[in-house]
Amino acid sequence: MLALETIDLNGAQSLFNLSNTLNLNKVLPNKVTIWKLRNNNPMRKSYINNNIKIEEFDCLTKLAVEMSKDLYPYIRVILQSRDDFDMNPEAWNDFKKRFLELIHERFNINSMRVKKLLDKNGNDEIIIKFLLTLALCSSAEGYQKLRTSLLDF
Amino acid sequence: MLQNKLLFNQSSVSLEIIGLPDYSNNDNKSQISIISQWKLMIIDKPLIEGNIDHLRSIMVAFYSYSNFLINNDTACYESQFIDIKAENFLTHKVLLKSSKPDVKPLNIKIGNSVLADIINCFDQFNSSSKVKKVNSVVLKNYPKKGLLKSIDKDKIFSNLLPPVLSLCTLLFVSSTFIYLYNVGEDKDEKVLINLN
């Protein structure tokens, strides 16, 4: 979701609008609920273990898939920019810069997993993995694919 | 008879489906139920085409490979017609093997963006109401990684068997000695009683 928020500068609002469009209001009635659920990520600075329920997890997964469908052209441009890095590095560099800034801002940088994300020598592979997963899940069966992947993580 | 053509585009990839409607099934004129030919066009790469069986196996290959990538498995798919392997995190090697005997296999290298486009094209094709579904890859329920995956039953058995056996032997031997009649101790007690 942080990768999606990196692309969409108004990500929090877009997620809430999308939850309204998908009729997920019962589980995600406002932006604060979405924020609280996102804080279940142990890598976050504001990590709170709320014991996320399965329907809340499903709603967040649906939001991520729908948002990656909307943002697919941008995700593709960033992936292509990394593929042709010598010719066109701008999109990749911009994305990576903002993504790392968001990680610094919101994640616990003392955590080993976050340190791995911030490691300039090896983080390209991890970031590409995130983007490729989002790109491959932006389809009709994307929700099922992403859900299986996240439950397996 | 004029054949119908459908084109599915996604940035650098186009999938063209050519075929006929199945009138015995009351299909529309624009529908394609019998696919006679297909073409997969990727910018800067050779044209890929074939019959319905080739399309089916190519779709299964790409969907399975993408599922391996999403699920952090070893990204490698091999079949009779097509092999896909990850060269590194940026490039994927696709080897297309022709069913004709004298045709050499075609080796193509694609990037992540092209891979995503191919999957997107196949998704459009799968979800189109104008063409009969060719393939539906069933998502496997992969077992959970981490603790459960790292547990190897044979390894546990071979590691736990020796200490369990030795403990059992020790218990058996020590319990046998506990119930043995201690003759010397009994004699000393009798002497003490007589002295009193």
Rg of Cα set of chain B: 34 Å
- Report helical residue fraction of chain B: 25-40%
Contiguous helical run count of chain B:
5
Distance between the terminal alpha carbons of chain A, to the nearest Å? 15 Å
Shape of chain A, please? Answer: globular
Q: Count structural domains of chain A.
A: 1
- Shape type of chain B: elongated
Unreliable stretches of chain A: none
Second-tier CATH architecture of the largest domain in chain B: Roll
| N/C terminus separation of chain B | 126 Å
Average pLDDT confidence of chain B is 80
Tally the helices of chain A: what do you get? 9
**Parts with pLDDT < 50 across at least 5 consecutive residues of chain B:** 141-150
How many domains of chain B? The number is 2
Q: From the helix content, strand content and strand pairing of chain B, which structural class follows?
A: alpha+beta
Going by CATH, the homologous superfamily of the largest domain in chain B would be Transcriptional Coactivator Pc4, Chain A
Largest sheet of chain A: none
Structural overview:
- The complex is a heterodimer of chains A (153) and B (196).
- With 153 residues, chain A is mainly α.
- Chain A has one domain (2-152).
- Chain A has helices at residues 2-7, 11-21, 31-38, 54-70, 72-83, 90-106, 112-118, 123-136, 142-152.
- The mean pLDDT of chain A is 86.
- By secondary structure, chain B is an alpha+beta fold.
- Chain B has two domains: 4-138, Roll (Transcriptional Co-activator pc4, Chain A), CATH 2.30.31.10; 148-195, no CATH class.
- Chain B has helices spanning 52-70, 112-127, 147-150, 153-178, 183-195, and strands at residues 4-10, 13-20, 34-42, 48-50, 76-78, 82-86, 91-96, 106-111.
- In chain B, the strands form two sheets. A four-stranded antiparallel sheet of chain B has the order 1-2-3-4. A four-stranded antiparallel sheet of chain B has the order 5-6-7-8.
- The longest helix of chain B has 26 residues, at 153-178.
- The radius of gyration of chain B is 34 Å and the shape is elongated.
- The interface between A and B is medium-sized, with 31 and 28 residues.
